[in-house]
Amino acid sequence: MNEKKLYQYAFGLALFTIVYNVLEAVFALYFGAEDESLSLFGFGIDSLIEVISGLGIAHMVIRIRQNPGSNRDNFERTALRITGISFYLFTAGLILSAIVTFVEGHKPETTFWGIVISLISIAFMWALIWGKTYVGKRLHSEAILADAACSRTCVYMSLVLLASSGIYALTQWPFIDGVGALGLAVFSFTEGRECFEKAKSNQLCGCGCSCKD
């Protein structure tokens, strides 16, 4: 595969990530509301925020294709700041919602779709990580490789959803849905903080992972 096709592949992966997150958000928000599952509904909101991040990544691929040695531009920095603010607001919303859930003893109708969506997400995210790592290595692009590393945070959040949904399905413990939401909040806060850090620097990747200078 020549360099031109590799960049096309990288851009295709970025677009696929955006489309996948939109679809994931639609299903997670719908079933999260339908089943009254806070962790699944929160997972859907996270997917919407990842769409904003994905737009910045797609733009990054175009930039490094045109100028491999260039630094992050204003579009990417703006996308990072918007993503960071969204993650902070999301974190606050998750914490407040979890507190209400604990106080009221609310429990979801079912967590079946939480299990299904989290398993699908894990499979797709690992496939994307493999694809981005493949093209990043062949292009010797630290930016694309860093983006692949960032995608692991999505896997971790999917595992949190899987764990909380699975435990509830087995035990019917009412508080586990709120615990899962708080687990998502931890990763959300970390991603938000790192988005702002990256927006201030010329580090290579987006948010949610350690990057090289």
UniProtKB/TrEMBL annotation:
Chief location of this protein within or outside the cell: membrane
All residue ranges annotated as the Cation efflux protein transmembrane domain in the record: 17-198
UniProt keyword terms in alphabetical order: Cytoplasmic vesicle, Endosome, Membrane, Synapse, Transmembrane, Transmembrane helix, Zinc
Subcellular location, record wording: Cytoplasmic vesicle, Secretory vesicle, Synaptic vesicle membrane; Early endosome membrane
TM stretches of this protein: 12-32, 38-58, 79-100, 112-131, 143-167
Membrane topology, from the record: Multi-pass membrane protein
Superkingdom to which the source organism belongs: Bacteria
PANTHER family noted in UniProt: TRANSMEMBRANE PROTEIN 163
Family: Belongs to the TMEM163 family.
A molecular function (GO) term: monoatomic cation transmembrane transporter activity
Protein name per the record: Cation efflux family protein
One Gene Ontology term, aspect cellular component: cytoplasmic vesicle
